[in-house]
Amino acid sequence: MGGARKIMHEHCAKLSARIIADYQAECGESPLWNQESGTLFWTDCVGNRFFKYVPATGYHCVVKSGLQINRCLLKTGGGFVVANNDGLWIWDGQSEMKLVIGEVDGVKLQFNEAMADARGRVFAGTCYFSPSSKYPLGHLVRIDNEGRASILDEGFHLVNGIAFSPDDRTLYFTDSVARKIYAYDFDVEDGSISNRRPLIQLGDNEGLPDGLAVDTRGNLWSAQWYGGVVVCYDSKGTPVQKVPVPAKQVSSVAFGGADRSTLFITTAAKPEPMPAMPEGYDPYSGNIGGALYAVDTSSVGLNQRLANLSKRIGSGY
Description:
4-stranded antiparallel sheet; mainly beta
């Protein structure tokens, strides 16, 4: 086992992140691969821009400006499901977004992250974190196919990467400020979770775990904000690869490309100093970020799960 990890580290040292597009995104986020169209989408959730990139031609552009998208998912039947500070929305990619749900049990659904499961339900995290203010802690929320929301768990500081294991038996959930990636037992039939436990605990001298992707072997690929790196962990939480990125604020990751072996990496250009920074970290010097990167790997990402809210009564879409 130790020899296998050594080989993986040596292989990883040869990986090279290349810039695909540099729009100096204030906070690049939510890389999303559409296998059907061969298109990668990503967002600037602070600068309110939505981008796309077509690897087959090298073409990339700003698709839409003036739209806040913290997380974007593909939707059954076409279009997108969007999570942002005001809730969960449906968007056809061109016209105005339509609100699905904005609060549950009196709690405003200020979403920072979301992911669809194999049944098309949306699992999303609320986030109210501010370094200068005391905000209520966040929640893990499930939105079912009818558009109803349920709070599944709570007490999180800064919600980020959500993902599922290849066998749909585990849900992964990131709390960046706590520097933890949790694992839950997951029942794909009814969408319930149980047995929360910390799978990965980063040290104070490391960056913050942020966006998350899982490959077909069950490895977790975690972007590390303040860390200038993407770290790959096996399903037991052991680090097995590190992919250096020439930007300090690495925000999220997604597999894409024709064979889903390209790891796309978003970064953020706007410095975001927080008390949780590693000791001695300078948030203003060097290459902070803002570009979209890509790395060719020997791993294959999971197929993109589609959000399915088609049973929502009276939705009109």
